[in-house]
Amino acid sequence: MIAKLLALAGIFGELSLLAVGGGNTVLPEMQRQVVTVHAWMSAADFAALFALAQASPGPNMLVSTLIGWRVAGLGGAIVATLGMILPSSLLSYAVGHLWTRFRDRAWRRRIQSGITPVTVGLVMAAAILLGEATSRTPADMLVTLAVALITTTTRLNPLWLLGAAAILGAAGLV
Amino acid sequence: MRETGPPAAPPSCRALFAGFFSIGISGFGGVLPWARRMIVERRAWLDAAEFTDLLALCQFLPGPNVINLAVVLGSRFRGRRGALAAVGGLLSGPLVIVSILGVLYARFQHAPVVAHAIAAVAAAASGLIVSMALKLARPLLHDVRALGVAALACAALALLHLPLLTTIAVAAPLGLVLARPS
């Protein structure tokens, strides 16, 4: 149990500091650690927990809470959540005060424009890997594509789409 | 909307907790638009330019952006206790809800109806991430070098299954070297 908690702290602490450009960029690595390296759950289980986090309000990174819970109960949930939040928050706390001093420097803008494409690539990878895990039938894939199309072209609240998918799924239509 | 200058008195820890609580429980699939609505439009803690600047910082720093926002704004107004109040407010509602969903799922996941519903919601959630990737990639379409770096980072993770640290260690310096000065 202690070994699992330490592993969770290590994984999510590292992910917290590697999440350049937001939480979704670390989904591929989270999946790799949880599914491939530690074999705590299947890729489909991982995708289901991510779906629950998406269906809850608030930051999507609360998927770390669900993963911790699944792996090591309440203690695991607490360790994984703190691991995901604490390192980056401490860094933000430390840097927040300095920001106004260097916000207009050219190097900061250069770093930003250099990092942006990396961020985009990481989210693209997250889309591919999650899509692989959730496309168990052609109908599932159709749902993914339809939601992607609707969300890209309209401003519909995603909660409606998740709810519609739940109803279609429960009715056995997809 | 206010006219000029910072508020006469910075918000109390209680106000920070309440404000970020409302952000946390209203944001589905992306909390930042709600953060802007609450911070700039409803409570006028910052003006639009200040918010944009703060957002740039929070996107620049690693970690979930909206949590960084809570930390920086809370500490700017009320120091360490303000940061704790803002983050606590932001996360307490969602943590309770996600835990309830998690417990219900663990209990009923083997019922066929629940299993089918969750599989469909998971497929829809993948669609949300696909859409986010498309929206993020759109501004890069005119920039071949940026697209190349994005494709490289994507392939390293999705095709080669390399660790994230390795991927960033290679792709980030490449992105910096190739970046167009903006």
Short description:
The complex is a heterodimer of chains A (174) and B (182). Chain A is mainly alpha-helical. Chain A has a domain at 2-105.
Q: How does the helix and strand content of chain B classify structurally?
A: mainly alpha
Overall average residue pLDDT of chain B: 88
Instruction: State the helical fraction of chain B.
Output: over 70%
Shape of chain B: flat
Largest sheet of chain A: none
Which two chains form the greatest contact, residue counts included?
A-B, 107 and 97 residues
Q: Distance between termini of chain B?
A: 31 Å
What is the mean pLDDT of chain A? 90
Number of strands of chain A: 0
The total count of helices of chain B amounts to 7
Give me the secondary-structure category of chain A: mainly alpha
Q: Specify the oligomeric state.
A: heterodimer
Order of helices and strands of chain A: HHHHHHHH
Which percent range fits the helix content of chain A? Answer: over 70%
SS summary, helix count of chain A: 8
Order of helices and strands of chain B: HHHHHHH
Question: What are its keywords?
Answer:
heterodimer; A: 174 residues; mainly alpha; B: 182 residues; 3 domains; flat
Write up what this structure looks like.
The complex is a heterodimer of chains A (174) and B (182). By secondary structure, chain A is mainly alpha-helical. Chain A is 79% helix and 0% strand. Chain A contains 8 helices and no strands. Chain A has helices spanning 2-18, 27-37, 43-55, 63-96, 99-102, 106-134, 138-153, 158-170. In chain A, helix 1 packs across helix 4 (63-96). The longest helix of chain A has 34 residues, at 63-96. Chain A is globular. Chain B folds into 3 domains: 1-98, no CATH class; 109-140; 142-182. The longest helix of chain B has 44 residues, at 65-108. Chain B is mostly helical. Chain B has helices at residues 13-26, 32-42, 48-60, 65-108, 112-137, 144-158, 164-178. The interface between A and B is large, with 107 and 97 residues.
